[in-house]
Amino acid sequence: MRRRTVTAGNLDEILAMTAPAQAAEQAAETPAAAPPPREDHGLRTEFEFELPRGYVDEAGTVHRHGAMRLATARDELRPQIDLRVKENPAYLSVVLLGQVITRLGTITDVHAGIVERMYATDVAFLQDFYRRINSEGHTRAAVTCPHCEGGFEVDLSGGRLGES
């Protein structure tokens, strides 16, 4: 058996070459019947959010509500081979957010160019939101009231100020 060395530069090329072969193998193994229904295992993979300021598109429309999906290993590896990230490591979060944001208002094709044009406040919010859902698995945070010293949880995924 011959081994093939894979570098980050040709990862997409190798995946593209092997994808049709894998699909053909899977089709040969399974009959042409409909796929079995998916079971709901209670795993939440997409989280709604509301931006503090909102993204303003070319037409002047403000988009505040959106959704972000959980990141995969591929999502975290792909920016490492992006030339923009190699030239400026700070660009990593822009590329990463562009991959995992599935919807922003009426925009369904969210990419790094859109994230670039967001206000810094919104990008910081999204970076924290990404960290929370991918590291901690939820969007809740424990806070303490400055007046009564009482502790409670708030949901950081959105809603108007004062609501949780």
Shape: globular
Largest sheet: 3 strands, antiparallel
How many strands in all? 5
Helix content: 25-40%
String of helices and strands: HEEHHHEHHEE
Q: Specify the number of helices.
A: 6
Verbal overview:
The protein has 164 residues and is α+β, with helices and mostly antiparallel strands. Helices cover 37% and strands 20% of the residues. The chain has six helices and five strands. The protein has helices at 11-29, 73-77, 83-87, 92-100, 112-116, 120-136, and strands at 46-56, 62-69, 101-104, 140-144, 151-155. A three-stranded antiparallel sheet has the order 1-2-3. The longest helix is centred in the N-terminal third of the chain and has 19 residues, at 11-29.
Summarize the structure.
The chain has 164 residues and is of the alpha+beta class. Helix content is 37%, strand content 20%.
Which SSEs are present, and which pair or pack?
Layout: H1 11-29, E1 46-56, E2 62-69, H2 73-77, H3 83-87, H4 92-100, E3 101-104, H5 112-116, H6 120-136, E4 140-144, E5 151-155
Antiparallel strand pairs: 1-2, 2-3, 4-5
Descriptive keywords:
164 residues; alpha+beta; three-stranded antiparallel beta sheet; two-stranded antiparallel ribbon; 37% helix; 20% strand; globular; disordered C terminus
